[in-house]
Amino acid sequence: MSQGIDLKKLVQEEAELEQRAIDSQFINVATKWFVIKKTSGISEVHADDIWRSLEKNVFPVIGQTPMAELTAQVRRQWNGLHRLSD
């Protein structure tokens, strides 16, 4: 302990924060959702189609985006598109 700081605890807390940031990325949340979706009774063909669409169209754009930022990002993009259509 240096100056009242527990370095082991600090390193552990930083590692937990980093893991939560990774877990909250859209691609990781979508992957967990997809595992549940696949077992919900949809056909394998439909499941494959969903996953291909995500890989091709969604993950390249927002895959690494934290879920907390996603709503704000989508709102900004929507507002930009809306202005273009006026």
UniProtKB/TrEMBL annotation:
UniProt keywords, alphabetically: DNA-binding
Keyword match Amino-acid biosynthesis: no
Residues annotated as domain Phage integrase central: 26-73
GO molecular function: DNA binding
UniProt KW DNA-binding keyword: yes
Origin: domain of life: Bacteria
UniProt-recorded name of the protein: Integrase
Organism: Salmonella houtenae
